[in-house]
Amino acid sequence: MLVLVAGGAGYIGSVVTAALLEVGHEAVVLDDLSTGHRDAVPDGASFVESSLADVGQTLTADAGFDAVIHLAAKSLVGESEQRPELYWRQNVGGAMDLLDAMRVADVRRIVFSSSAATYGEPDTDLITEDARTEPTNVYGATKLTIDRMLAGESRVHGLGAVSLRYFNAAGAAYGLGERHATETHLIPIALQVVTGDRDHLSVYGTDYPTPDGTCVRDYIHVADLAAAHLLTLEAVGPGEHRIYNLGCGSGYSVREVLTAVREVTGHPVPDQDAPRRPGDPARLVASSDRIAQDVGWAARRSLTDMVRDAYEVLQARGTP
Ligand code: UDP
User: Fold this and answer.
1) Which of 126, 232, 313, 315 is the most buried (most CB within 10 A)?
2) Would you place residue 320 in the very low, low, confident or very high pLDDT band (cuts 50, 70, 90)?
């Protein structure tokens, strides 16, 4: 297939692009480089620096695209609460531009990077796709809106669409890892302590109703995420909108993640208790049974793999 990867210069998008190329697909990466990196675009993919507003210039009827994987989005929860207009414009407006261009060019397959943030804070041990969607921040609301747009586009115009609701992406693959200008995520921040870029990690909240009092999340290796994109891209048929949760089905607390980072790196990683971060639910763990049953996907890589692979890429790159 010839696949347009919108957001393919970002963390997850670059790994998805590398995975596509590895199995013989062709990829064109479209990215405005607002948060992505040109050097993250894998060799072998074409690159177009463009915003989604202009995607119609690339995604033309003559270009021969078979499918789109859409990962181009603003993705900082805190920022989405400070600048909601930016998130609605970029995420929802961008998806509308992309769907318009796909309709005009008659490209009839899309895999979209949705998010566990669409659910909000469900009061359940394992979150299935049937859980109520009540996002608690603008970021999650934009992702849910796009999921609904895809449902309509499938029903009315016959698009084959997949919404992949990622839980906590982590790790690295193909030499590609997380590189955010503003780092908010737990594992990269812990690794910044290891590399000496921070002196400690703040544990946000130690009084949650969890076994050790810290938040529990479902961490999922970026290579496992990439595999899910490839499988569902092949599987989805016209007029379908599939929604799949992507996680390991097991949760780790902040303290358990820190233990894994200490074990993998041999660094003490000093931590300090800190107040809760506003908007953090106590526990978010996925049921990924639906995608397992439908396309045989399962997460294969462990938390240790995620930390080790992220650390290796960081070491190879040197500190920023
Ligand atoms: N966290 C923390 N210290 C940090 C960064 C994150 O204690 O410096 C916690 C955060 O409160 C959450 C978990 O680690 O409970 C995962 O946070 P992350 O930002 O990686 O992902 P999120 O679940 O918020 O998408």
Assistant:
1) 232
2) very low
